[in-house]
Specification:
6 strands; 10% strand; MAIN-like; 3-stranded antiparallel β-sheet; AminoTfrase-like_pln_mobile; Aminotransferase-like plant mobile domain-containing protein; 6 helices
């Protein structure tokens, strides 16, 4: 899938998979953050983090097209949310909406335009254990896997919420 990650200019994202978070440092920085000035207040003076700083540290691009899906959620069809159809067409995953509870995280895989990242990654992990991705795999299969990998990294590592593992789709 590296070809697809490079094409999207997001190949450096793979280095963040096992990143360790220093909670004491984050707590110390949060205590020094001043929302009035959007700066950290230190003894030596004020400091801020710019988008360019983040780009230098992460090696991720800050120019070009944004990583987003759409400004408007797809229309509902056949009594199903539009995002169910969107996820099926882009990831090849049929998301069960009603009456399904995932055994690992005890929540439906999708609710109100949110998809359980745990459910999605488990779905693909189970699928690729029985059907491993190889050099001979079809390009659309590799691209689907790359999309799920990026969703997992962006939604689960970069923009994760401590209160849930849901990725907003709308």
């Amino acid at each position: 899938i590296l070809t697809f990650l490079k094409r999207a200019r997001l190949d450096s994202i793979r280095h963040f998979n096992g990143i360790q978070i220093d909670r004491q440092l984050i707590t110390a920085l949060a205590e020094r953050w001043r929302k009035e000035t959007h700066c950290f207040n230190f003894r030596e003076g004020e400091a801020t983090i710019t988008l360019k700083d983040v780009a230098i540290l992460t090696h991720l691009p800050i120019d070009g097209k944004p990583v987003c899906v759409s400004d408007h959620p797809p229309e509902d069809r056949d009594g199903m949310p539009g995002w169910v159809h969107f996820i099926h067409s882009h990831l090849g995953v049929k998301v069960p909406v009603k009456g399904c509870v995932d055994a690992t995280d005890r929540m439906p895989p999708m609710r109100k335009h949110q998809v359980s990242i745990t459910w999605l990654t488990k779905y693909f992990r189970d699928h690729y254990e029985s059907h491993p991705l190889t050099e001979e795999s079809p390009e659309d299969e590799k691209e689907r896997y790359a999309r799920v990998y990026l969703i997992g990294m962006i939604g689960g590592v970069f923009f994760s919420k401590k209160s849930s593992n849901l990725l907003s789709c709308g």
